[in-house]
Write a structure and sequence with these properties.
The protein is of the alpha/beta class. It has 3 domains: about 1-40; about 55-80 and about 300-420, Aspartate Aminotransferase, domain 1 (Alpha-Beta Complex); about 85-295, Type I PLP-dependent aspartate aminotransferase-like (Major domain) (Aspartate Aminotransferase, domain 2), CATH 3.40.640.10. Helices cover about 45% and strands about 10% of the residues. It has helices spanning about 1-20, 25-40, 55-65, 85-95, 110-125, 140-150, 165-175, 190-200, 240-245, 260-270, 280-295, 300-320, 340-345, 360-370, 385, 400-420, and strands at about 70, 135, 155-160, 175-180, 205-210, 235-240, 250-255, 325-330, 335-340, 370-375, 375, 390-395. The strands form 4 sheets. The chain has a 4-stranded mixed beta sheet, sandwiched between helices. Strand 3 (about 155-160), helix 7 (about 165-175) and strand 4 (about 175-180) form a beta-alpha-beta unit. Residues about 1-35 have low confidence and may be disordered. Bound molecules: pyridoxal-5'-phosphate. Pyridoxal-5'-phosphate binds next to helix 6. Keywords: Aminotransferase, Pyridoxal phosphate, Transferase. This is Kynurenine--oxoglutarate transaminase 1 isoform X3.
Length: about 425
């Protein structure tokens, strides 16, 4: 098997290096040679890709693009980032020409500096920008780097459900074994303390994805698990400028943590991405510098954004209730979950594969018949647990007023259809 793999790679490299300089004839014999290799090889893709080729986002985003659909599925704002952030990006593009060039591998220095000082205060740590901060390609990049750096063949990775769906394939690609624990309520401080004590009792590293930390509603407070006693030394805290400044396309993320953990992430980073786009990092640095000056004041984006988005959330809750959907009121994030049990009992036989969870069939039905897209919640659960959580769908309310009005129109029509 190992020999097959080596031969396959050698053939591929030969094709790449020599192919362009060869005539048609030798190209054909090369193709034959490669074909022979393919036949000899049991499978072309690396074993770590087995079983992870299907991605629900690709499927549902494609469905939404095929019809006149209001997309409330994917988690991104469809309104502009704040002016100060846009101006910071414009400045980064049109100012110092050196911002067109590579910067430091582990982060643009003004960005690592402000992240260390800003989050150092929040996490109660004296953070060194060179040792405790790593800038990555979005929070996705941070997660991937963390899994690659810390998960070994056969390691158990405990994933709390519902989970951001990439945690499972990232664990598998690193050779780990996912173990799923379903969450019944939203995390409270007491529950976080319990998780923290279990981590310490069993010597477990905690990877905490806090990309929605500023989007907290109803006066609730975000609690970073790294601030709990004994947790800083074993926690990687992940953040995203995309979610922080409503600019998901910038793809700037970061990991904060102790040097003992971060040094291993730097090894992965320097052998994969090496460094992230300089101008986007400069814009994020300047945006954080601005926020640091306004911190906690009414002028702060981190204060204004949740207030505005709470209104979007409340708007959506009222609208969804009008057609018999039963939203669960969230205290944070971009999303709300709606119970569709009543639909499940009234229309149990929606089209779809026999083993397809009900929520997926319902979302496909809703896209086609009601022009609204949501995301089936079962995709955030492991396969054995999906059937238990197939009567919820997720809507994104991080949307412009015009999108919410378009949703209202679709729901109004739905309501009219319900009249006898
Ligand atoms: C929970 C969570 N973590 C991470 C990410 C990825 O963030 P980024 O766009 O910065 O890569 C997302 C994006 O939707 C998310 O919802």
């Amino acid at each position: 098997m190992a020999l097959g793999g080596m031969f396959r790679n050698a053939a591929a490299i030969y094709l790449h290096l020599v192919g362009p300089f060869r005539g048609k004839k030798s190209g054909a014999s090369l193709a034959r040679c490669l074909h022979q290799t393919l036949v000899m090889t049991k499978q072309l893709q690396a074993r770590r890709l087995n079983g992870i080729d299907h991605n629900p986002w690709v499927e549902f985003v494609k469905l939404a693009s095929e019809a006149d659909v209001v997309n409330l599925g994917q988690g991104f704002p469809d309104f502009a980032p704040p002016d100060f952030a846009v101006e910071a990006f414009q400045h980064a593009v049109s100012g110092d020409f050196m911002l067109n060039q590579y910067t430091k591998a582990f982060g643009y220095p003004p960005l690592t500096k402000i992240l260390a000082s800003f989050f150092g205060k929040l996490l109660g740590q004296d953070m060194d920008p060179l040792k405790n901060v790593l800038v990555t390609v979005g929070a996705y990049g941070a997660l991937f780097t963390a899994f690659q750096a810390l998960v070994d063949e056969g390691d158990e990775v405990i994933i709390i459900e519902p989970f951001f769906d990439c945690y499972e394939p990232m664990t598998l690609m690193a050779g780990g074994r996912p173990v799923f624990v379903s969450l019944k309520l939203v995390f409270s401080r007491a529950e976080l303390e319990l998780v923290a004590s279990l981590c310490q009792q069993h010597d477990v590293v905690c990877i905490t994805d806090e990309v929605y930390q500023w989007l907290v509603y109803d006066g609730c407070q975000h609690v970073s698990i790294a601030t709990l006693p004994g947790m800083w030394e074993r926690t990687l805290t992940i953040g995203s400028a995309g979610k922080t400044f409503s600019a998901t396309g910038w793809k700037v993320g970061w990991v904060l943590g102790p040097e003992s953990l971060l040094k291993h992430l730097r090894t992965v980073h320097q052998n994969s991405i090496f460094h992230c786009p300089t101008q986007a990092q400069a814009a994020v640095a300047q945006s954080f510098e601005r926020e640091q000056l306004h911190f906690g004041q009414p002028s702060s984006y981190f204060v204004q954004l949740p207030q505005a988005i709470q209104r979007c959330r409340d708007h959506m809750i009222q609208s969804l209730k009008s057609v018999g959907l039963r939203p669960v009121i969230p205290q944070g994030s971009y999303f709300l979950i709606t119970d569709i049990s009543e639909f499940k009992s009234k229309m149990p036989n929606l089209p779809g594969a026999a083993d397809e969870p009900y929520d997926r069939r319902f979302v496909k039905w809703m896209i086609k018949n009601k022009g609204l897209m949501a995301i089936p919640v079962s995709i955030f659960y492991s396969v054995p647990h999906q059937k238990l959580f197939d009567h919820y769908i997720r809507f994104c309310f991080m949307k412009d007023e015009s999108t919410l009005q378009a949703m209202d129109k679709k729901l109004q029509k739905w309501k009219d259809d319900l009249r006898p």
